[in-house]
Amino acid sequence: MTTQAATGAYEVDHSGPNYIAVFIYLAVLTGIELGVYAMGLPHVAKVGLLIALAWAKAVLVAMYFMHLAMEKKALALIAIIPVVLVTFLCFMLLPDLTTRMWTKFDHKIKVTNPAEMGANPVAPPPVQVPQQ
Amino acid sequence: MSEAAAVETHDHGALPVDQLEPSLTPGNLGKLGMWTFLAGDAMTFGAGIAAYGALRINNPNWPTPADYLGITTTAIMTFILICSSVTMVEALDGIQHGKQSKFRMFMALTVLGGILFLGMQAFEWHHLIVERGMSIQRDLFDASFFILTGFHGCHVFGGVVYNSVLLIRGMMGKITQAKAGLVEIAGLYWHFVDLVWILIFTFIYLI
Question: How far is A107 from chain B (nearest CA, A)?
Answer without folding.
Answer: 16
